[in-house]
Amino acid sequence: MSRSKIVGAIEIGTSKVVVLVAEMSDGRSMNIIGHGQSTNAGMKKGEIVDISAVSDCAHAAIMNAEKSAGEQIEHVYLSLSGSHLRGFRHAGATAITGSGNVVSDADIQRAIDNAKTKALETGEVYIHHIQSGFILDGQPEESPRSRQGSHLEVQYWHVVADEKKVKDHIMVVNGFGLEVDDIVITSLASGSFLATEEEKRQGVLVVDIGKGTTDYVLYRGRRAAHTGVIPVGGDHITNDLSLGLRVKSKLAESLKVRAARAMVQKEDRNEKVPLVGDLSIGDSFHSQLSINKITHARLEELFIILKNRLGSALTRQNLPCGVIITGGVSKTSMIAELAEVTLDVPVTIGQSPDWVRHAELRDPEYATVLGLLYNALHDQKEEASAPKSGQRKWLKKVTGLFG
Amino acid sequence: MKKKAKKAPSRTSWRNIQQGNRRTKKTTKVARDRHLRFLFKVSLTVLIIIGTIAGMAYIYYLLKTSSKAPAPMVAESVKLNFDSDGVLTGNWFRTNYPDMLRTDVREIDVGKLKESLEKRGQISAAAVAVSLPSVLTIDLLEKEPILRVRIRDEQGNPLTLLVARDGAIYKGALYPPETLRNLPGVMGLRIRKERDGYAPIRGLDDVANLLDIAKARIPAIYRHWRVVDLSDWNPDESYRPSLVKVQSSSIEEIVFSTSGIETQIEQLSGILQHVQRYQQPLPKSIDLSYGDKAVIR
């Protein structure tokens, strides 16, 4: 009997809530059957500031997704972003105690436990423990089991978050009558989905520039080696345009989407951009040069922050596959060129894999939520190979017959 | 990609955060509406399951009892005009001759049908006629039962038969239970099975005559007659005295001779009037078979 699961991927972003519903069969295949989206209110820089408003928006999006899927969500994968996210490297070490100094499973487990037990600051919780590999007597080892040595070390990249902010996200989902099965930070969701295995092996940086935050993940040796969040996003460009051009935020957002370019060019000097753009009487015009200069300045600053954060990790030698930019802001014209100039590494705009058939979902804005489903599929593969457990949700399947 | 320690969360993992469940208070109207819809669907599902089970049980019951159920009605092609002076009805005919009304009326063998009807002990004469294009007329004269007799059939089950005035023995149909209850039982008869029924009792006219006169002249006494004993009764002229013994609920035995019945009934009436007038106790036995004398005990 096929074990099919209805999985919902929920991204509660600063500008919108996106929900995708997929049917997964035995971890082998995934069929996206529902999509819901709503404009979000009550979020600032990826963090919930008004849980009631966010709940209204999120529940509307979940409801729409369930309606379009014709199924009720059984499992929830939730993305998490915000400047409260913090990453750090911490290794766990142990002495090899077995006979003949042969590394046993118990030695490996002990090293792993040591790595994961670092005390956190009050009010912080672990989100991910990302293993970066083993070092046996100072030498990197992919799999140290049954090898001889005296000192085993396991490298981990840990991601922690503010417990209260995580609770807020969970409460929004719980308030709809659903439980959260897993939380994946935005950068890991987008990164695991957009970067190929080969790119991850050689080294690649995936940068997801959203409305409120910029999330990034650096892959090396097929593993995520560094993650981070910069509290700068598309909203900052909108604010800058609003202040610089002295227009309302809503109109500035419209200008950004319609006309903003990340690079300044000679011909911009002569170009004019209508503020509203619907040929209405009284519509004012703004210089393309001004718009581009403002956009360029903010994005350049963002990339410089990123460069400073990653330091030597962000070089052509360490990142042969360069940078992949995604997220809503990645649609800004010439952003790849600006990033390439600033970061001095090859830069591409993230492209969804070919298996994403829905044209609408190939938009970079959906990279995170698709990445959540990609993670869910990966998890289900592991579950499918594990022994069957749990009760059958036969009642749910029967009630599903009535819509 | 080993990046999450999901199966064994550490003490400070987000997985230790207490989550709500399906019963957690729904925070928005959308969520509450969804919950209500879920409850409705569950209720509907339970009702449908119960309905399905009940339906299946009913179908099973119908299948189990289908052998007892009447045959499904099939449209009749022949119109029936049925008349009888007794208790039989058109539906009795339909039940016993179901194919007769579903054929072409021209195919009905009137003579054969009349013969078949008259073979039944309950019917003394049958008039059968066919009118084209599609009318079958049946007019029956029925026999009147005067006695009932209980025997055992081939399987040993009790069976009640009726005895008509002409001595015919038959299984009665459609008689009201009250009529059957008021008929006196008969004992001492030798009942023989014939090919299609039972051999008639020859010479039963004098017994029928006795019962008719008693019923007419002394109905109050006749009403208590329970059993008519014909052990000493024989219609042959050479067999004398031929006696009819009646057991009643008030008098244990009243013995009649088959000759001079009217006189005996008059005598019985006189005896009982005398007893009543002088408020004497009812006799246990009255033997009226000695001509103008009666032996009273």
Task: Describe this structure as you would to a colleague.
- The complex is a heterodimer of chains A (403) and B (297).
- Chain A has 403 residues and is α+β, with helices and mostly antiparallel strands.
- Chain A has 11 helices and 18 strands.
- In chain A, the strands form 5 sheets. Chain A has a 5-stranded mixed β-sheet with strand order 3-2-1-6-11, with helices on both faces. Chain A has a 5-stranded mixed β-sheet with strand order 14-13-12-17-18, sandwiched between helices. A 4-stranded antiparallel β-sheet of chain A has the order 7-10-8-9.
- In chain A, α1 packs across α3 (163-174), α4 crosses α10 and α6 (234-245) packs across α7 (249-259).
- The radius of gyration of chain A is 23 Å and the shape is globular.
- The two termini of chain A are 23 Å apart.
- Residues 398-403 of chain A have low confidence and may be disordered.
- Chain B has 7 helices and 12 strands.
- In chain B, the strands form 3 sheets. Chain B has a 6-stranded mixed β-sheet, with helices on one face.
- In chain B, β4 (145-152) and β5 (158-164) form a beta hairpin.
- The N and C termini of chain B lie far apart (119 Å).
- Classes of the chains: A alpha+beta (403), B alpha/beta (297).
- Chains A and B meet through α1, β8, α3, β11 and α11 of A and α1 of B.
Give a topology summary:
The complex is a heterodimer of chains A (403) and B (297).
Chain A: E1 4-12, E2 16-25, E3 29-39, E4 43-44, E5 47-48, H1 51-69, E6 75-80, E7 86-95, H2 105-116, E8 124-136, E9 139-141, E10 151-162, H3 163-174, E11 180-185, H4 186-194, H5 197-202, E12 204-209, E13 214-220, E14 223-230, H6 234-245, H7 249-259, E15 272-274, E16 285-287, H8 288-310, E17 323-326, H9 335-343, E18 347-349, H10 367-385, H11 394-399
Parallel strand pairs in A: 1-6, 6-11, 12-17, 17-18
Antiparallel strand pairs in A: 1-2, 2-3, 4-5, 7-10, 8-9, 8-10, 12-13, 13-14, 15-16
Helix pairs in contact in A: 1-3, 4-10, 6-7, 6-8, 8-9
Chain B: H1 29-65, E1 79-84, H2 90-96, H3 110-119, E2 123-131, E3 135-142, E4 145-152, E5 158-164, E6 169-170, H4 177-182, E7 185-187, H5 205-217, H6 219-222, E8 225-229, E9 243-248, E10 253-257, H7 261-277, E11 285-290, E12 293-296
Parallel strand pairs in B: 1-3, 7-8, 10-11
Antiparallel strand pairs in B: 2-3, 4-5, 5-6, 8-9, 9-10, 11-12
Helix pairs in contact in B: 5-7
